[in-house]
Amino acid sequence: MDSTIHSIIQELLKAFMTFAPTIFKKLIFLAILWISFNPVRRICIKGFNKFLTLKKIDDLLVQFLDSLMNIAIIIFYILNVVQVIGVEMTSLLALLGSIGIGIGLALKGSLSDLAGGIQILISQYFIKGDYIITCGVEGVVQRITFLYTVLFTVDNKQVIIPNGKLSAEVIVNAGANSERRVDLVFSVSYDTSIDKVKEILTEIAMNHKAVLHDRDIFVRLSKQNSSSLDFTVRVWSKKEDYWDIFFDFQEIVKKRFDEEGIEIPYNKLDVYQK
Question: CATH number for the 116-173 domain, one of 3.40.50.2000, 3.40.50.300, 2.30.30.60, 2.70.98.40?
Answer without folding.
Answer: 2.30.30.60
